[in-house]
Amino acid sequence: MIPAPYLLYLGHSDDEIGIKTSRGLATFRAGDCVGELRHDDCPLSLGLPRLTIEQAVASGARTLVLGIANAGGVLGEALIRDALAAIAAGLHVASGLHSRLRDEPRLARAAAEAGVTLFDVRDPPADLPVGNGLRRAGLRLLTVGTDCSVGKMYATLALRDAMRARGLSADFRATGQTGILIAGEGLPLDAVIADFLSGAIETLSPARHDGGWDLIEGQGSLFHPSFAGVSTGLLHGAQPDALVLCHDPARVGMRGLPHCPLPDLAECLDANLRVARLTNPAVRAVGIALNTVKLDDAAARALCAATGERLGLPCTDPYRFGGDPIVDWILQCFAPSTPATTASR
């Protein structure tokens, strides 16, 4: 486990989506976050106290979390300088970037001299199997999306909480850096060698015999030219019984590829169902999760209602309005094999 409390890094970021890891921790692990580290040219904030490294240490911080995501997940010079300053002040450093902290000689040397630890979150185990597609026991829900970074993790966590509130056994299975930092465990799917993608998810969500659910965090989108491969491997390895389609209605083009339009929701859902049927022919859609953060309350509720009516599925913003409409549908669809149990903790 990465030692808490955390100082969340925003650095020089000016991309709201690019700070999603820090924002996720501030949202779901608020009690473990003492403040944010941002430079004068950063217009963004998590609503936490803005602290220097020295102030954060005085406030009890133990780890600087480089909670940003950039193209390619690289360690730039600015990040390295700030990480070195944190190490010199006695902080551990955690990162979910593709570039490994331990592979940067200056950081490795400084950490060894200071007696602190570098945590590379995007670091899959070395012994992952190749997927076999064999049907395994248990119930699984997978969130999928019209694009990357549309709220799949938020929806998955909100649905888990809604299911637990109804007395169901439900567990979150993290597949990305932010989810892993929040849950304290998981598997960074986009860092896995392609041949082992489906096997990695089979490992993350093994056979389950308690009648409960694994809620698996989705990644990317089948329609995103850059990341569809990860989404495909996830769909095959998860063998989902249920799919929830996530969408940001404010998005006008694929993230990072503005020349690529977003797919129609019905078309996207159908494509995901067709791919998922390779390993679970019985998979079914159980809901639509909209990320309505940029809409006022009335507009958000109206859009959820209209979308649900158009697609014939329950539609909500699970984080904002709760996941009960989708959970109601799940209970109806899977009632014979979904007994109420004491929630997993």
UniProtKB/TrEMBL annotation:
InterPro entries: DgcN-like, DgcN-like_C, DgcN-like_N, P-loop_NTPase. SUPFAM superfamilies: P-loop containing nucleoside triphosphate hydrolases. Residues 48-124 form the D-glutamate N-acetyltransferase-like N-terminal domain. Pfam families: DUF1611 (PF07755), DUF1611_N (PF17396). Residues 133-327 form the D-glutamate N-acetyltransferase-like C-terminal domain. This is DUF1611 domain-containing protein. It comes from Sphingomonas liriopis.
